[in-house]
Amino acid sequence: MSEGKVTAVIKHPAGALGDEKSRPQFHFTPERNWMNDPNGLIYYKGEYHLFFQHNPTENIWGNMSWGHAVSTDLHKWEELPVAIPCTDEVGIFSGSAVIDYTNSTGFGSVENPAMVAIYTEHKNDKRKQSQCLAFSLDDGRTFTKYEGNPVLDTNSPDFRDPKVQWIDGQWLMTVAKPDLHQISFFTSKNLKAWKHLSDFGPAAEVGGCWECPDLFQLGEKWILIVSLNPGGYQVGSGTQYFIGQWNGKEFIADDSKTRWLDYGRDNYAGVTFENAPDNRKIFIGWMSNWEYAHTFPTHPWRGAMTLPRELTLHGDKLFQKVVNENGIPKITFTTTGGSIRISENRDKFVEIGLREKKIYLDCTHAWDEEALPLSKEFLLQEIEIDLEEVEFEIYLDRGSIELFVDGGKYAFTNLTFIGTARSLVTPIGEIRNLNTVNFG
Ligand code: FRU
Fold first, then answer.
1. Does any ligand 1 atom lie closer than 6 A to the CB of residue 274?
2. Ligand 1 center to residue 423 CA distance, Å?
3. What pLDDT, in 10s, does the model give residues 149-178?
């Protein structure tokens, strides 16, 4: 057994909705039915809004609508009714939300500004994707679709996932042309009439569709996040980012190097919150992978979000730090060449550590091959590093593990089939400063 400080895991009433096998205990999941991408992440009047791609009636992708949850601390989420429902003809695909403080749209007033969702309308016959608006005058509780929709239509079947923000007195839309491996930029004064500015790409990884972009400033630099499916780091879905400058018209990348946001398999379509306090860039991703998302065996819901992570830039690398002001249980340790094993029983465990100058996360023994076959090579992740001593920070929830190495320089996010109940932490080799969790 390990030594060190021990914190306790949150307990859920046994057998209740929320206590199912593989139901995360401190990650957001919808109570029931399917969820994929986070949408419209925004902070407003003390609440973080998490909208999400949701099938309100089934546990598989379809009937795409915007689900909705709110939180005051990014930790405890309250699920609200569906915010923007699909119709028989169209799905409500991914997008973003803004607060129209100057009432540029005329939807609200300066005293009570509208929350405006900018989403992709996807025709079910697959002929077209275009950008549309819906607005809320009651803090995101109810939305009205704009009667002048669509507001941006290029007659394309592949044109989606608008991320809109207010920059220098104008609206800027960052939106994907997935099959062309391009991100397009458009400008508007009122969210209703849009003018094309420029396109970025193809660049770096182009082994799949480009989706769900995000553009934001960190210090002197601008970051462009682009999700990619397939063609990810290991298998299926992955997220890359570019570092550069936004000059008011174009994004100019410093280079076209591949930079992965996450070295795990299950962090996709993530974006950052608009208007977060203190200008923090807080990121949430969908904790799954299109490679097997549909068959991941959970019921009566399917899909979870990553923990919220604050992004910072150090040199030419994005660092991720879990927003953990509420003391979510974590395991930490330092090593110059050892590992820890977190085991549910003798045969079910994950192993994490440093060997031969590589950090590794081995989930080979944390997968249920019968429930969901996945090639063994995808269950082990290794990264070569140039460090003698390495710090590890681990968040193990039912059904997932998130690992952060060297202060968040490397992130690994994986679904697993390990629950936290009765897990033991065993140090192997040289391990220091081990703080662990009482899995009870
Ligand atoms: C990414 C994505 C988006 C799209 C949404 C549909 O996972 O394919 O590009 O808007 O999912 O649910």
1. no
2. 35
3. 999 999 999 999 999 999 999 999 999 999
| 91-322 and 331-435: identical CATH topology | no
Task: Establish whether residue 397 lines the binding site of ligand 1, counting it when its CB lies within 6 angstroms of any ligand atom.
Answer: no
Q: Nearest C-alpha to atom 6 of ligand 1 is from which residue?
A: 93
Q: Is the CB of 271 under 6 A from ligand 1?
A: no
What does the DSSP 8-state code read for residue 169? T
Catalytic (active-site) positions: 37
Report the C-alpha gap between 138 and 209 in whole angstroms: 36
Is the distance from the beta carbon of residue 205 to the nearest atom of ligand 1 less than 6 Å? Answer: no
Whether the full predicted model's pTM is greater than 0.90, yes or no, is yes
The predicted-structure confidence for 365-424, as pLDDT tens digits, reads as follows 999 999 999 999 999 999 999 999 999 999 999 999 999 999 999 999 999 998 765 678
- Cβ atoms within 10 A of the Cβ of 202, count? 13
Q: What is the CATH number of domain 331-435?
A: 2.60.120.560
Looking from the CA of residue 94, the nearest atom of ligand 1 is: 10
Q: In what order do the strands lie in the sheet with 144-145?
A: 90-99, 115-123, 129-136, 144-145
